[in-house]
Amino acid sequence: MGRRRFRDKIIALLILVVLAAQLATFAVVQVATERSVRSQLGEEIHVGQRVWQRFNDNRSSQLLDSVVVLADDFGFKAAIASGDPGTVASALANQGSRIGADVAVVLSPDGRWQAGQGDGAATAAALAPLLRQAEADGYAQSVLMLDGKLCQVALVPIRAPSLIAWVAVGSVLTDDYARDFRALTGLDASFVQTAPDGVQVFASSLAPAPLRALRSSVLPASGAGVREMSLDGRQYFTAAQPLGQAAQGDLRVLLQGSLDEAMAPYAALKFRVLMLSALAGLLALAVAMVIARGVSRPVGELAEAAQRIAEGDYSRPVAIAGKDEIAHLANAFGQMQEGIARREEKILHQAGHDSLTGLPNRARARDELEAAIARHRDDRECSAVLMIDLDRFKEINDTLGHGFGDRVLVEAAKRLRQAVRAGDFVARLGGDEFLVLMENVERGQAPERATLLLHSLRQPLDLTSTRINLDASIGLALYPDHGEEAETLLRRADIALYDAKETRQGVALYESGRDEVHLRQLALMGDLRHAIERDELSLQFQPKVEIGSRRVLHAEALVRWTHAQLGPVRPDEFVPLAERSGFIHELTRYVLDRSLAQQKKWGEQGLDLGIAVNLSAIDLMDADLPDFILACLQRHDVPPQRLILELTESALMRDVNYAVRMLHRLRAIGMRLAIDDFGTGYSSLAQLKRMPVDELKIDKSFVMQMTEDSDDAVIVRSTIELGHNMGLRVIAEGVETEDSLALLARLGCDMAQGYFLSPPLAGDALSAWARDFSAGTPAAAMHDLRV
User: Fold this and answer.
1) pTM: predicted TM-score of the whole model, two decimal places
2) So what's the pLDDT on residue 252?
3) What are the pLDDT digits (tens) for 410-456?
4) What is the pLDDT of residues 28-47, one digit of tens each?
5) For the chain, what percent of residues have pLDDT higher than 90?
6) Contact 216, 229 (CB under 8 A)
7) What secondary structure letter does DSSP report for 387?
8) Does the pLDDT of residue 287 top 60, yes or no?
9) Domain HAMP spans what residues (predicted)?
């Protein structure tokens, strides 16, 4: 019995010793774990502050890039330059919606509100500090209160070329923005401001209960380090920092990590340690000591790892062998370290690279160009800036889909990287536009190297059994020949790119003086929108004469622009500008309305003439055009068959199916349709027979030299025969000699138009000319041509 009691005492003593050791070990683990978690959470807050700064800087940079692109947009500048409040507001709404802005405001050069959301005076006052900063630095961005919302705002000047306005674009800081940061770092973010009765919270990722408690809490001071806060019975590690350098009032972002959530993963560990402690009562003291030693060592390593992370060192992994809970904890800790490192690296990479192609983006390209200029400012070595744009890329997207278009962009980026030298820089600026920077290149070799790049891009491309032929245009500007500033070189390379597209020559080198042409075009685009209200536009009419009967049947309306300062502006200069700026619809409707008014006036004078009006390719895209023409015909009481609409062959070929549908709508009204400049648009007979047209106009380039060039004469004769065989009337334009008119009569052409008969005339002058012509006065122009 005594032996049994002694055994029991020994067993009890051993159990007590082991249990005491286990309890002590458990206490050590508990304290060490909580300390480690607190240290880890504190370091996560510090890391989160750095990540927040980069996260917010990346968003600010994207916002600034968007507003810079908006301020540089030709159409938007033209709208601002117009000075019309409705035009400015419409352009601002359209452009703001295009770039996804929550707030968009246009200010006058002196800071007065011109257009945008909110109360004009209050908005202008709120933007005043930002405007002062932008006047000093060239741009400004910060976090402001606008209309009771917390907005991240970027403000830049609009120049054309001098300052014409300021544009401010803002993005509201919302709960989604705070939740995005939480998804990235695991930390809550709240955007707050101290209020007399507590804290005003604008946006937060906190749960509802802690959020309510936050509104009645006392905030830590900005820059006061990490502090603990109790919100609804939950402990949070909190760090506060100001929102932006020019923030209004006490605006702060609170970065918060929940201690309860951080400790939650360790609840299972505590339970397992307790179970081990209960089972350890049956084990020897040595096993208890081994367990104790196995617990303390990995905790120390975790503490060291936390210290390394606090110092920003993610290079050493947390490696603790084993399969127990501590090893799992160390593994989770190591995964957290790797995750933070990857996210930081990803944020830094995304800030300077394009996500689709992996190439540097526009911001990085600008920095690289400025660095290259700085490197060669002393030695004046030549560098080449190549602006590259893929031709007809929109057609690829529309026909084959945006997914296929993305693959084309990736392949184009790959070809550019393979075609340039090892030290050359390649970037994607956006859309289908790329940039290549070549340093230390000989001036004479730059165009040759650009041509080689173009040849590489033009190689056939095979993607998933689809074979396409890429084409591109390249604009080339040289440093220091064409500019010594990055902005100047980029602008002039872009001008050269436009020239390459216009001339279809593939590669174009910037030509001195093109900046002035560019500025003139910009000014004309702005003034053109006011030309109608200023009564600077007028119409002239050139008659079309039936050769066989010598009757004046039609007159073609031709628009003219006499600028108040520049004088007469050629139609071949301002009509393309109208198409580029989107003003072509208003211009076409003006010509239609004035032409039908003149036709009615001729009718009242006893002159029965059809009126011909030209339509552009963009006009065909206007779905409301047929309804407008019908209303215009009814307003002026002109029969539809007295209106002839002339469309160039190249315009019809842009989208044949849509053009055919629109022509049928116009034909249904009763109007006559004519194909202008026939012979220059590469249309096929299969396409031509689908179109419900009545007339063909032979392009003047064939008519003017047909008496001297037998090839032109053959083309004219074949076109006349083709038109007649298809039941169409044929008109020859560009008739400038009596011999040309006589040859057209022998070839059976129906009508003629040109300076030999009459130049374009004002409405009343044409009426007088038609009367004289019908009376036989201009006999030299139309003697007996019947053969």
Assistant:
1) 0.45
2) 84
3) 988 899 999 888 889 999 988 889 999 999 898 888 899 989 998 99
4) 767 777 777 778 777 888 88
5) 18
6) no
7) E
8) no
9) 293-345
Q: What burial class does residue 369 get, using C-beta atoms within 10 Å of its C-beta: 0-12 exposed, 13-18 middle, 19+ buried?
A: buried
- What is the C-alpha separation between 252 and 770, in angstroms, rounded? 79
* Residue 424 Cα to chain centre, angstroms: 26
CB 368 within 8 Å of CB 376:
no
- Asked if residue 595 and residue 503 are part of one domain, the reply reads no
Cα separation, 277 vs 288, in Å, equals: 9
**Residue the block writes with tokens 């060039």:** 709
Q: How far apart are CA 38 and CA 261, in angstroms?
A: 11
Within-domain flag for 574 = no
In whole numbers, what is the pLDDT of the chain averaged over residues? 80
Domain assignment present for residue 485? The answer is yes
* Residue 484 phi, psi dihedral angles, 5° rounding: -120, 10
Among 111, 137, 172, identify where a domain stops.
172
**248 within some domain:** no
> pLDDT digits over 162-220, tens only?
888 888 888 888 888 888 888 888 888 888 887 777 788 888 888 888 888 888 787 77
DSSP string, 478-538: EETTT-SSHHHHHHHHHHHHHHHHHHT-SEEE--TTHHHHHHHHHHHHHHHHHHTTTT-EE
Contact 458, 472 (CB under 8 A): yes
* pLDDT, average across residues 452-461: 88
Q: Is 392 left (phi over 0), alpha (psi -120 to 50) or beta?
A: left
Q: With b meaning 16 or more CB within 10 Å and e meaning fewer, what string describes 458-495? A: eeebeeeeeebebebbbbbbbbebbbeebeebbbbbbb
- Segment 488-535, tens digit of pLDDT: 888 888 888 888 887 788 898 887 766 666 666 677 777 778 888 888
- Boundaries of domain holding 153: 73-172
Alpha-helical segments (H) within 504-624: 514-531, 571-581, 584-604, 617-620
Length of the chain in residues, anyone?
787
3-state secondary structure of 458: coil
Tokens of 749: 């052409």
β-bridge mates for residue 145, sequence order: 150
Domain count, the chain: 3
Q: Are residues 660 and 730 in the same domain?
A: yes
